[in-house]
């Protein structure tokens, strides 16, 4: 038999194969690597396992297998270009330690004892037993001189000294335990009996465990033998597979079919004996299993008919159970599920119906808005637009057919804003320019309330300024119209050329006073109309802010903490929402009050201009005192009436009247003074004596401040004086 020898020269690892029995040499590393892939590699699935080593195990590559590329890297690194020879090192080292060389497949053969520099460098010698002496002496695991730990400080007698017994600790003897022994003796004997009984049971358990252990060892031995032939029991065993064939016949890849060497015959014989041993092992295991399970086999054979009957009954029972379950499923489960599906379907239909109703309502939004606008229901139209936009954004969001409706509603809302502005301007113009013969203060109140609610709903508070400007225009127009009518009625003035003010100055006192009274009456009527609008607007603003109760037919039957409307005479829906805040309410009411005051002031200003135009030619200066007093009374009556309307007095007309009165009094005083001076200049005066009664009368008036006659004193003689004494000053008296 050819085998590996114990000594061989140092050659490159890829020159020869240390596992194969033949001494064939390789010329190139590539040829050696191909040899390892062909004869010392097994493929399991997609992985490669290196078998180049003792017992077909590579010491460098795990048994799990690697990829093709990793296998090439492993062969190049550990078997071809390694310094120590890879598998060669492991093989030769093991053989050197045992004194034998393994041929890879045959038995171990003896080697000669000649020195080998390659193998001897790994042997253990006495030089490997050297230890570092300082490290040994400083071993931290050893206790350092425990005996002299205390004696070096307290002396040699510290550790060896006798301990004197303490007089406080009594000496304990056997007599101290007699009472305890008598008390526990019965328990101790019972404990001994129980311990003996437990010992017997423990021995029996130990014997059973030993038998079980022996049985387990036999099972493990059988399993170990079976593990050797697990390849033959594999479901993938097929000798047509080259890997399996090479594993079963490991020498076929290196031996030719015509080899006549004795070693080849011996290897074939060993393989045949090995396979025969495997067969015997399998037969023994089968016989052992049959012997251990014989009772079960015989019982299964004897009860086969009974099992068939039971199986038939079980099949019938299962069939009946399935039919019952099917009927239950049809009658109970499916019907219940059908009810649930129908309920869900009904809910979906109801939801779809409600959505279709909403869509139908939204589809009718534009015609409804147009109808409301034709009926002057601005607040209803605006609420409908707001509600429709909310529905479009929430309930009908994403519906393609309504994608343009939102913008259309926004455009209609802007159109309603313009309509409100135009309707309010038109209404105020018609209301304020009505003839003065119409004594109704406020017409079409329902329309006004609707417009105001719409403007408040849109937070458009400029209606106050619009009404103020329109009122100014109306006041100016009514004054001019009144003057034109008065001038037209005067026949002697119609033919005169000039402005309206020049024609008015041609009127006499009576006609001018009638004109002034007519102007005052017309202005008062206009102010009362403005006050009526103010009252209605304040009530509407109060209702819009939630502070005033809406005047409905059922409002008198309800108790409410809200204020009652004072000027509204039309019914308003009681479900009016709060449209403005408290701050907006205060601001709007203040603006309305300021509007009324400004209208009154403007009326006074127009009257002042009328009077100023009349007095340019000194008309008031030519009036008599009675005529001027009449004029003042008319002006005072007008101011009193306007004060009742707006709640405060106006200063412009009063100031103008005061200035004219001052000029009239000054002119009257100058005329009377001049006349009196002329009279005094034309008369002859002579100083007379002052009787004592006159002096007493003057003194009494100066002392009391009242014009009264003092009591006469008869017991006193009095004589006349030359002068009259008043506050210490002397005055001459003529007569």
Structure description:
The chain has helices spanning 29-39, 68-80, 87-98, 117-120, 133-137, 148-154, 157-160, 178-228, 230-233, 242-248, 262-292, 294-302, 304-363, 365-374, 378-393, 405-432, 445-457, 463-489, 491-494, 500-505, 509-545, 582-614, 625-646, 652-682, 692-704; strands at 41-44, 47-50, 100-101, 109-110, 687-688, 724-726, 729-731, 733-734. Helix 15 runs antiparallel to helix 16. A hairpin with a 2-residue loop joins strand 6 and strand 7. The protein is elongated. Among the domains are: 29-122, no CATH class; 463-675, no CATH class; 687-734, no CATH class. It has 25 helices and eight strands. By secondary structure, it is mainly α. This is Vacuolar protein sorting-associated protein 54 N-terminal domain-containing protein. Keywords: Coiled coil, Golgi apparatus, Protein transport, Transport. Belongs to the VPS54 family.
Largest sheet: 2 strands, antiparallel
What portion of the residues fall into strands of 2 or more residues? under 5%
* Major beta sheet, strand line-up: 1-2
SS-derived structural category: mainly alpha
Helix content: 55-70%
- Mean pLDDT reading: 76
Which parts are unreliable, with pLDDT below 50 for 5 consecutive residues or more?
1-10, 84-112, 253-259, 555-560
Instruction: Output the number of helix runs.
Output: 25
Total E-strand runs: 8
* Shape, principal axes of CA atoms: elongated
Cα-atom Rg, whole angstroms? Answer: 70 Å
In angstroms, what separates the terminal alpha carbons? 196 Å
